[in-house]
Description:
The structure is a homodimer.
Chain A: E1 8-13, H1 18-29, E2 32-40, H2 47-58, E3 62-67, H3 106-121, E4 125-127, H4 143-156, H5 158-161, E5 167-169, H6 177-186, H7 211-223
Parallel strand pairs in A: 1-2, 1-4, 2-3, 4-5
Helix pairs in contact in A: 1-6, 6-7
Amino acid sequence: MSRSSVNRPAIVLLSGGLDSTTCLAIARHDGFDPIALSFRYGQRHDVELVRAAEIATTAGCEHVVVDLDLGAFGGSALTDPSIAVPKHDRVDDVDESIPVTYVPARNTVMLSISMSLAEVRGAADVYIGVNAVDYSGYPDCRPEFIEAFEAMANLATRAAVEGRRFTVHAPLLRLSKAEIVQRAVELGVDLSRTVSCYDPSSEGRACGRCDACLLRARGFAEAGVVDPALLR
Amino acid sequence: MSRSSVNRPAIVLLSGGLDSTTCLAIARHDGFDPIALSFRYGQRHDVELVRAAEIATTAGCEHVVVDLDLGAFGGSALTDPSIAVPKHDRVDDVDESIPVTYVPARNTVMLSISMSLAEVRGAADVYIGVNAVDYSGYPDCRPEFIEAFEAMANLATRAAVEGRRFTVHAPLLRLSKAEIVQRAVELGVDLSRTVSCYDPSSEGRACGRCDACLLRARGFAEAGVVDPALLR
């Protein structure tokens, strides 16, 4: 059930990071009534789910968590404890090829499940915070992937057969990390509880040296904004 | 790990029904070393998972089961106990529009997860037993859906970026149920443990009156074969 009968519902994929939290605010700004969707997918840590729940509560929206243990397959440093998360001293050392933190087909799987939830809730819109600029190494963060997914989705669902066009919104796709920070600030998003780190402490403290931490730090620096998560 | 180092691996979606069991045999016949993939997706009953495990063992292949609770979303008679499975006395009464047994985006979700498993296991081939003839009411059983999924998958994965083309095999797509039965008999598939029923007893006995039972019965009748599952 949506909390408002005025706005149309939209599913927003919410990891609890900077990008998806900004995406949630953009969905609201676009006039939708967001339903946040997170996954327990065999992450090394539950911190991001705790944070996602807090962020959804702050945003006043429903939060759906789906259990999906892709970690059982292995193959990524984000879910397989036997693969180390790469750490660097400087952002320039971040490798631009496909990183070991890539979870096979993760965005495809998450978008597919969001399609399912959308259909059940009568939504025709899904938001995903993928970004092609800082994450050029991930094949499923490219604009052509998003377009192909949308084309497939419009053949796959009962809603599409009945004429309701399914739209994948990726409003951060062509933004730099600094531009995402600026957008979040403009929309008044509270970024203090967001966690981007691939390898945080159990309290959610960022390691400061993984690719995600280094790219986030550069984004805040370039935007001229102090990262509020560091002030807590 | 595949059991054979000779053949290439392929992921085969296995529900434990007639179609997917035949598909598994076709993958083997095509020269692949199948890895069977099943889902615990909030089905009303676990019988089909028990049967899928037996069928995989008989076929000598690994069986991977992924927990994925789409039942929590509701929206389908196959996962939502508050929606009744439709029953009919005659196969001609089976409704040709989108049935209430449709699970929103199920094939998309299952194919997406099979992509993930394929990538982790170094497979570039997935088999799915969808059928456009008897299940014309399901949007995600149509040939154009399969083609669109494959196009999307070839943009989504590391394997595709590295030049290994991902292929979705849907060998039953244009076969009638009778032709599927004939193909299974030609390949020597043991169909006695397959369960197609949407609403079986806890021992796996078919109800005989749901759409799946009626279409299966007509298929065997038209093929001139006695359904071995009825003889047990």
